[in-house]
Amino acid sequence: MDVETTREESLFADALLIADRVAREAFLDHACDGDAGLRARIAKLLAAHAASDNFFGECIANFGAGTGNVQDPADLMDHVDGSESTGEKIGSLVGRYRLLRPLGEGGCGEVYLAEQEEPVRRRVALKVIKLGMATKNVIARFEVERQALALMDHPNIAKVLDAGATEQGRPYFVMELVGGVKITTFCDEHQLDARQRLDLFIQVCQAIQHAHQKGVIHRDIKPSNILVSVQDGVSMPKVIDFGIAKATASRLTDETTFTAAGQFVGTPAYMSPEQAELSGLDVDTRSDIYSLGVLLYELLTGRTPFDQKELVSSGLDEMRRKLREVDPQRPSTLLTSLDNAALTATARSRHIDPPKLIRSLKGDLDWIVMKTLEKDRRRRYETANALSLDIQRYLNNEPVNARPPSKIYRLQKLVMRNKAVYISVTLVAITLITGLVVSTHLFFQEREARFEAERARANEKQLRQEAEAREKVTQATVLLSHGEVAEADALLDPIPIALFSPSTEATSVFRTLGDWNMLQGKWKEAANRYAVLVQVNQVDKEDRTDAATADLLMAAPLLIEAGDLKGYDRIRRMALARLATTSNPAAAEQLIKTSLLMPADESLMKLMPPLAQVTAASIEFFDPKVNGDSYIAAWRAFALALLEYRRGHFLEAQDWLRKCSSFPDQSPSCVASVHLLRSMIGMQLGQVELAGAELKQGQEMVDARFRQKLDFGDNKTGKLQGWIMTPIFLSEAKKLCETLPASGVKSPR
To answer: pLDDT (tens digit, 9 = 90+) per residue, 284-343?
Structure first.
């Protein structure tokens, strides 16, 4: 075969790889380079190829019409003598794989759904060179794809399972059956937001990084080559079609294959500037970084930086110029240029409002995308892994490495556009400042690296300590299950409160240890355990029940008794910030009592009215003449009396205390609290004798209760949650007596 025939076959095979008619014409105009005869012969071959496809299509259609029945396409294939574009029959065996039906075809190969029957039974995808396409160049390209995929071992890359040749000698290979749809379609159909799309994109970057580490460049990254399916409820992207991959570290096959000068390899809209050069000599892994950037651009905006149709219709030379020289718009800028209908549709598919979509792209995401789309590949991310790490930093609200172009860089661009003017003027100045610029840049780079390392070490230490704290909680759970309470308490005592994370297990452990320490009379230790308990009992942040505030009834007074007023103020503010909107009357009552055990500032008092309304409304349903749960109403009336006292409304507070006392079957701890609060009100109003009598009765009840053995009690004796607050009220009443010497009231001893 002469050289001219070989060139003609090669150009014909390459032209078939270009599906778009206009792009194919542009390719042939450039590749034939004015050779009209060669151009005409290739056009004739392409027409004959198209006619052969039409011939088989008409045969299938006529077969159905002749029978008078409209048949399933798969049935027609079985009857037309099994003839397909590859010459393989449906139902026949290729190696040990039975062909079931075609899945699709590319420029030189066709993919079948096939079934392997031994040694395991499974369905696979089998790709084989098309009949009539077995030129030396096409076979070499097909072998490249087979060897490229065989190198891969990554969950996000389609695995090669087997390879061989048909009886006619056409190469084939077998890979896992990849379901799903292209990544952009999947994201839009499921209305994934930016974070979910970026999570998928990170997996794609990791797959491409794996390919690069194996020495393979994909060179045709685009949505249709990344399929996404849902496996066990998790979205799983798969990178496919390494058919035009280029080896970077070693050759992939024994057959030498190369990209001829002037030949397009890839898809124009996703093609890097160096691919548009058509030389093939300056393409490395950073070309895939550019294509990943185009894909990221499309995932975020729904459009590519350069429209595919406009690129192709502009002609080959103009298309190459745009890709090499024209900077695309930032993603956020592109969105602002859309009309309202297009912008609304784009935002809806991302489950966000249009203004929020634009704001979410401005800043870090704009810079990350534009860094991948740099014309100068040296300014892109060095690796796919570096790109995925920067996106992860964005998702973690950390500083990203994609910085805005520096002033030095903008100056360089200006100089490049005006070389003749600036070279002669600035040559001496550039020589003088280059050393300073380089050393300064290296200094900041080194300092940034040092700071980054220090932050990483601090984060690693924090995570390690939190993990150790969780492990100690689990060990304490085991000790408690064996009744070894003291050992569990000693195990957790040295660990700082900030290291404990909210969890059901930690909540149970610290409630047990808090109760145990309190019953042992270890007030400070009990206060510490309950403070941790309030922090870790936040697993459900939407919880509005009284269970969310019950622990505060123990934690708040214990912290005050232990002298930790800052700790007390911290947990009451934390509880109010989380639960101040509760509609549960029991929770509202407990929040009022625990938040106002000590005087509160204006910011806390502003949160009280909604809680007071819920509590007051619940009392209307209780009849003072009926026993039963009336002790609950009494406590709620007391909480409202305490609130009015903290507001300085002493007469209103007295009214609520009378309401409280009107309910029968009151808890003794509630009665004692009423005496002490009434004493404080009396002293504020100058009712000296009343204040002294109430203080005496309250103190006698408190002293009598705490002379007994501590237990949790019941509604008759008064639960410990109620009694534990009374020393706080007693202490405040006695101090108030001492600060009002004119009243003549003496503090009981």
So the answer is: 899 999 999 999 999 999 999 998 888 878 888 888 888 888 899 999 999 999 999 999
Which of 2, 14, 188, 220 does the annotation list as catalytic?
220
HSE of 147, CA atoms in CB hemisphere, 13 A? 20
CB count, 10 Å around CB of 258?
11
Query: Which structure tokens are listed for 365?
Result: 């995401």
Burial class (CB in 10 A: 0-12, 13-18, 19+), 65: exposed
- DSSP character for 88? P
C-alpha span between 527 and 589 (Å, rounded): 21
HSE, CB side, 13 Å, CA atoms: give it for residue 366: 17
Gap between the Cα atoms of 325 and 319, Å rounded: 10
Q: Which of 520, 441, 462, 454 is nearest to 486 (CA)?
A: 520
As a 3-state breakdown, the chain gives helix, strand, coil percent values, each rounded to 5, of 60, 10, 30
Please spell the DSSP secondary structure of 309-321, one letter per residue: HHHHHT-HHHHHH
CB 152, CB 159: distance < 8 Å? yes
Query: 307 catalytic, yes or no?
Result: no
Encode pLDDT of 474-503 as tens digits: 888 888 788 787 887 888 888 887 777 777
Residue 589 near residue 555 (C-beta atoms within 8 A): no
What is the pTM for the complete model shown?
0.46
Domains of the chain, first to last: 3-67 (no CATH), 86-176 (3.30.200.20), 186-242+256-403 (1.10.510.10), 622-749 (1.25.40)
Provide the 10 A C-beta neighbour count for residue 673.
31
Residue type, 602: E
Mention every residue, 6+ apart, whose C-beta is less than 8 A from residue 616.
636, 640
